[in-house]
Amino acid sequence: MDTIDTIKEQIGNNPVLIYMKGAPNAPQCGFSARAVQALMACGEKFAYVDILQNPDIRTELPKYANWPTFPQLWIDGELVGGSDIIAELHESGELATMIKAVAKG
Ligand SMILES: N[C@@H](CCC(=O)N[C@@H](CS)C(=O)NCC(=O)O)C(=O)O
């Protein structure tokens, strides 16, 4: 499978998905750490892809998403944004609402 197909499958199969550096319990970048903390605070399950372990995705996703950096949060197949947007949505309470809506189908 080529990298873009892999990305499409990941985004399509996981209602809440974060592309990040490292893992949620061991983030390898402050931006990823901040983003994943906000996600964990919402209390729902989410999927992640460690782009440091997947260099092809690190190269291809920014072009596919038209978003240059990581982390990237995808909810219900749509790009939400990076750590700045995630932090804003978390502070306003919208992040939990968005995630709970998807988690409950
Ligand atoms: N303001 C950005 C900061 C994210 C950022 O600058 N990420 C950098 C450093 S982790 C990045 O992904 N660079 C490209 C790369 O490392 O492939 C956000 O809101 O997410």
UniProtKB/TrEMBL annotation:
Keywords, sorted A to Z: 2Fe-2S, Cytoplasm, Iron, Iron-sulfur, Metal-binding, Redox-active center
Gene: grxD
CDD domains reported for this sequence: GRX_PICOT_like
GO molecular function: 2 iron, 2 sulfur cluster binding; disulfide oxidoreductase activity; metal ion binding
Residue numbers binding [2Fe-2S] cluster: C29
Function: Monothiol glutaredoxin involved in the biogenesis of iron-sulfur clusters.
GO cellular component: cytoplasm
Assembly mode: Homodimer.
Family per similarity comment: Belongs to the glutaredoxin family. Monothiol subfamily.
Protein name per UniProt: Glutaredoxin
Compartment(s) of residence: Cytoplasm
